[in-house]
Amino acid sequence: MNEDNSDHMAQIIDGKALATRIREKMKDRIPQLEAQYGRRPSLYVILVGEDPGSRIYVRNKINAATSVGMDARLIHFDDDVSESDLLNLIHVLNEDPLVDGILVQLPLPAHMNEERVVDAIAKDKDVDGFHALNVGALWQGTHGITPCTPKGIIQLIMSTGIPIAGKIAVVVGRSNIVGKPVAKLLLDENATVIITHTRTPDLKAMTTQADILVVAVGKERLITADMIKPGAVVIDVGITRNADGKLVGDVDFEAARKVAGYITPVPGGVGPLTIAMLLKNTMECFLNHAETHSRVSKLWTTIINARIGSK
Ligand code: NAP
To answer: pLDDT value at position 15?
Structure first.
């Protein structure tokens, strides 16, 4: 691909369409699962307080889960609820065999310890994948729940058909919810990964090496066209509102399109995949619970038959 080719336009990776396809498949499968296991996957979302952004995110998650046929419930607390009340609720949901997924919408009010709250969620119901044991499983490469946004980013890259193995992937941002986990997932796919942050001396020197560039910062136009390798796959995770109140990413989209090979828009790129992956994680938790339940039931049948037989 040639940088001088002024007609060149990157292909847009349509996150909305990809997420719709994933959700449609799930929608078709849920009635079959209900017939097999006698119940549908269930997701409980806990919201504390009235933050307008959080209210929108929570509503979108509940609507998405309901639209594919899951049983989705919202539990809404006032922002002065005590941490111990919240923890007690989580413990009750942890013990409830009809609950597959529990999600506490972050951020929590300042009087709560987020880490303690997230780690109170049962590891096998932690659909966000933020529990310390799931984070450990991700880094050890053992079985756990993978956080939604990083998981969605990998799906977006794979949807281009460009193999990840052998590529140089540069991640801008090193947060626990996006930057670090997506870097690990890219490593798992055999990319050579560079993680950059505010202390990276020459960001452009790193980003221009990237065959795959994932930007998760939250700063409008941080990545300009001259920072992109021609033909690169560019995944823009950032979401901020610009001076006109418009939702924008971290990449100067219009200019970047003339250089990149593939690029995600904001909105309509990573966001829809994050929600689709939340549904996938809920489905995985459900299948895990339903299978365990059916194995335990069979064991009980064996034990009861043995008792009857020995009388
Ligand atoms: P975060 O916790 O604030 O982390 C931002 C990261 O960017 C930090 O690691 C920071 O480096 C790095 N950074 C800041 N300025 C930089 C610069 N000039 N050059 C290089 N690195 C820089 O944010 P986050 O939670 O990861 O979220 C990032 C963005 O993604 C936000 O806009 C958020 O809204 C969006 N997001 C979108 C979705 C979605 O579903 N679409 C999901 C999650 C997040 P240091 O570590 O050195 O401070």
So the answer is: 98
123 labelled catalytic: no
Residue 259 CA to residue 6 CA, distance in Å, equals 9
Taking the C-alpha atoms of residue 275 and residue 46, their distance in angstroms, rounded to an integer, is 16
Residue 310: per-residue pLDDT: 78
Position in ligand 1 atom list of the atom nearest CA 178: 26
> Ligand 1: which residue has its CA nearest to atom 1?
175
| CA–CA distance, 214 with 183 (Å, rounded to integer) | 9
Domains of the chain: 39-126 (3.40.50.10860), 148-268 (3.40.50.720)
**pLDDT tens digits, residue range 218-261?**
999 999 999 999 999 999 999 999 999 999 999 999 999 999 99
The span from the CA of 289 to the CA of 281, in Å, is 12
To the query of whether residue 209 is one of the catalytic residues in this protein, the response is no
Residue whose tokens read 């969605």:
152
Q: Which residue is closest in CA terms to ligand 1's atom 4?
A: 175
Q: Which atom of ligand 1 is nearest to the CA of 199?
A: 47
**Which residues contact residue 116 at a Cβ distance below 8 angstroms, ignoring those fewer than 6 apart?**
83, 87
Percent of the chain scoring above 70 in pLDDT: 98
The residue whose C-alpha atom lies closest to atom 5 belonging to ligand 1 is: 217
- Before 267, cis peptide (omega within 30)? yes
Can you say whether residue 136 is alpha, beta or left, with left for phi > 0 and alpha for psi between -120 and 50 degrees?
alpha
Q: Answer yes or no: is pLDDT of 1 > 70.
A: no
| Per-residue model confidence as pLDDT tens digits over 149-204 | 999 999 999 999 999 999 999 999 999 999 999 999 999 999 999 999 999 999 99
Q: Which amino acid is at 38?
A: G
Q: SS3 helix, strand, coil % of the chain, rounded to 5?
A: 45, 15, 40
